[in-house]
Structure formats: structure tokens, C-alpha cells
Task: structure prediction
Amino acid sequence: MRRPSSSMLMTAGLFSLPLGWALLLLIVPYILMIAVGFWTRQFPLFVPDFQFGNYLQLFSDPQYTTVILRTLKIAAMVTGCALILGYPLAYFLVFTIRSDKLRNLVYMAVIVPLWVSYLLRAYTWKIILGTDGALNSALMSLGLIDAPLDAFLYNQTAMVITLTYIFVPFMVMPIYAVLENIPKGLIEASEDLGIGPLGTFRHVIAPLSLGGVVAGAMMTFCLSFGDFVAPVLVGGPDGTMVANLLQTQFGAALNWPLGSALATLVLIMVLAILAVTGWAERASARNLR
Amino acid sequence: MTRRRTARALTAFALATLPLAATAGELNILTWEGYADPSFIKPFEEASGCTVSATYVGSNDDFAAKLAAGGGVYDVITPSLDTVGMMRLAGFVDPIDTAAVTGSDGVYPEFSKHPEIVVDGETWAVPLIWGSVSVIYRPDKVTGTPDSIGVLFDPAYKGKISLWDDKSAIYWTARYLGFPNIFDLNDEQLEAVKAKLIEQKPLIRKYWSSAGELTDLMANNEVWVSNAWTGLTSKDVNALGKGFTVAEFSPKEKAEGWMDSMMLVKGTPNQECAVKFMSYMQSPEGQCGIAKSTGYFPVNPGAVSSCMDAAMKEERKVDNIDFVKSLVMWQQPVRLDKYLEVWNAVKAAP
Result:
């Protein structure tokens, strides 16, 4: 038997901590979660078991499908809104602002809200959108409406507005990074060949920034898909999302088995989304070559 | 000489701090809003040396959830009578030596000897406070004088109605639909309740999950009518001086009644502080303190005899335990899981 070389020992020493951490705090909990998904709820708590009743309930009771579809819809809307707002913003930062100082300042202004507590930012939207809120007051003082409107708060629109506001930086950051790395020479070459700004964008900038768009969209989508605060703070009676269902099953309903089954299902969905976007990203990268 | 004086000073210092050091402890309570108000908790902390920290629940179903998620965090919990039995069955609590809880013999026997509280000769809870759940509304917005649960289902108030995010939504709807057995509804009745609640959804602005949230909703003009923990929200909203007031009424389909009691979490290291707290809450300071901070009814009529005037005694039903009979006292639903499932299905519905 050969003695382990010193480099092997070093490798083991270097990676044992992160690997151990991943094993203990990521892999083991996932295995536990999947296992508990097969347990049975039995008053007052639950008992270990191996049965598929929880999954059967998830697929047979329409409330779970309704909420999963609603969550997908909200997350897609938030991703779309964040892209519409975030891409031009990143573009403006990289190509329009000439001064480095100013660019850094504006970029920081986009990032700084992330330092403020999420709860506080979501709560602020309640104050803006409420019946007695800032938006209604402004519209009334402008004479556009006579009585405050209920339509801004406690519905899915309010959730999309709040989540978009909160997650826009996650869209801007990766797009900014890819736009900044596009060699200026490519854009100049395109212009030299007589291609207009729109054509340059379509044929040069857009394809080269796709990676950033996919990364930003993926992050925004996953973050809003798993959100449970916006529905509670600004959502109405039709605002329940998947994370709220999970909270209920692990909380009030005290049905950890059903909650674990649902969490496993959500995990599979998220992994599927990641796989599809990863595949799309690689496909688009191949097309560029 | 100097040395002796120093020694004496040191001894005095040690003696002065000794009782404090000996009793210094902490007490973590899982309880309801208003039940750990500084007005009466601060004097307790000073007298006992126990530092109190409180976490609030939004419904009785939160107790088991929080305790199941990991013990060792809470020392005392205050579930309602309908949840006391479940805490015992789940093994979350220890029985209480009532002889050690000063003043607990003054509690209405209807509460202290209740079959959920005394089981096989062992006492599992010490009553704390009781009250009702009625309808809160804005007299300046709601026409006439409402007397029925129907006001919560009235399309005239579309978008201005709220409801407690709790399984009790089923009890309210069942009473409105005229089902007498609200804690033991059959499948057909539950389906009818569920359909009615889903039909009500477009009228609902927001389901509230804490007294603070309902106070916000009422105070900021978001809603005009809701069910509410009688006394607490109306007191808080009216104290804000918003230019309008709120009122409460017991619907003709009856209001709900509840009684919250203190339970000792299994194996708590702070048992001494817990028992001191339970005793304190049976004293005039404790009973009047919590009654004033919540608007609810004291369980210990003797304790409040000196700290409430006649008008307040009348309002808070002191020595009027018969008021219980006018309420539907909460019981654990026979099929708790089914009820929670129905309520969750209502919330998940479009």
C-alpha cells in the first residue's frame, strides 16, 4: 500500500470542510425531507411510514395544482416585468453613461436597496398602495380620482409590483456583467459595416447578452417562485403561493409529511426549470459559435 | 479598620446581590398579543428577577407547530381550552403542581376543574383569561345596526370585509348556514361551508392573522367589518383617534367563547420562573393588568375585586360566569385535520 502523497492530504484537508458542510447541511436534509414525504400524519403528530398517500393527495386535491399554477404565473410575470425594466437599465448603464464615476454611482443605486431588510421594503409598498396610501393621495390631489381606489393593494398585481421591485437587482446584475464584457470592437465593427443601432442590437448585443438574461431570469424566477412574504403582506385572499402552503403544512396544519412531499415536488420542478434553462443557454452559446 | 470596613461593605454588597443572583432567571412565553404587556410584565420582572421574553401566535394551531419544530425554546404556553388536550396528548407539556401556584384556588371552578384541564387527577393548565370573538364594524360605514353574521357575507361591503385566518372561519360560516353541530360537521355540511366561504372570497379584502394586522386594516380604512377578538382590536383602533370609531356586537347566531390557560412546557429549565409567573398572573396585578391590556375577562374574580370598579366588573363579566352559556365555547373539532384541510382549500382557491 502506498502512502498517501502530501498533495492528496492537502487536497483532502482543503476540501473536507466544504464537502462536509455540503453533506451535513444540504445532502442529509434533502434525504430527510424526501423520507418524511412518505410518512403518515396521525393525530396529534405524525409517524414514520412508507406510503404514497401524500403525493396522491397533492395530485388529487385541486387546491395544490391551483396554487402551483398560480405561483408559476406570478413568478413568470415578475420575471417578465423585471426583464423589461432591468435590461434597458443595464443597457443604459453600460452603453449610455460615459462617465465611469456616474456609472458606478447608478449601479450602486440599483444594488443598495438589497442592503435594506426585505420585510421593510415589502412593507413600504403597503403604505404606498393602500386605500389611504401615497398613490391614492397623489391621484386624488391631481384630481384624477374622487375616492381612493381599492385596486392597488391586497391582490396579485400588488404582489407582482412588490416582487418585481425587490428582485430587479438580480436581473440587472448579470445582464450588466455580460453587457460590460462585450468587446467594444464588435459593436464598432458592426457600425462600420453600416448596420444601424437596432440591427447592431439584434445581431450583436442581444445574442451576446443572452447568457446574462438567462442567468438573471433564472434567479428572479426562482426567488419569486419561493417567496412567501409578498403574499402575506400585500397579497389578497387569492394570493396564496406554494411557499405559503409549505408554511401552513409545517405550521398550523402540522402535517410535515404532506409538507415534505410538496417540498420535494417543488424541488423537482425547480431542478427541471434549471435543467431546461441550462440546456437553452448552452444551445444558444453553440449557435453563436 | 479600613480593611474591616471594606470587608463589611463587600459582605453587604454580596448580601444585596445574593437574592437577585439566586433567583435571576429567564422565562420565554409563547402567547397572544396583549398577554405580555410591559404594564404588568415589568413589575413582575422587577419582583421576581425573571426576564420575560414573549413570542406571539396568530392562532391556536401555532402552538403545536412551534413546539414540534424544536423544544427548549419556550417555558410557558397559553393555548385556548380547545387546544389544551392536544398539547397534553402530543407530550409537549408537564402536569402542574397547583399547590405551588398561589391564588389558583380562586379561579372559577368551571374553568379550573374543566375535564380538559384536570385529567385523571392531574392538572395540566392554570386558567389565565377568557373572552369572546364577536363582529367588529364601522358604524359610520355599515348601514343600520347589524345583528347577524350575514354582514360578513353582504355583497354591499364587497372588498371591505376581513376574516380571521383560522379554522374558526368554518365555525362562523356553519352557524350562519344554521348548522348546530359546528365542531362535528359531516362531509356534506363541510362541503356547504367550503362553498360558502369560497363564494365569499371576492368580498374579502384580506384574511387577518394577528390582532395587530386587523388593527392596521381597520385603522387604515382597508376594511369596515370583520370577526375579531372582542375588546382588543376595538380598544386599539379607537385609541388611535382616526376620526372614526369602531363598535362590536354579538351576532344573533351567537358569538364564540374561549378561555386561555397557562401550560408548563415539558422539561423546561425555568420551572421556577414559570411557576412564579403563573402565581403572579393570579394576583390582582396580573389579572387586572392583562384584563386592562386586552379588554378580556379575568378568570379569578377574587383577585380583581380590589382593582376594578363596579362598571368595569360588569363589563368584564366578573362573577358572571353564566355569560359562558350565551357563547359557543370553543372545542377541538372532532375531525381537526379535516377542518384544517377545508380551511386551507378555501385559502388556496382562486
Remarks:
- Chain B has 14 helices and 14 strands.
- Chain B has a mean pLDDT of 91.
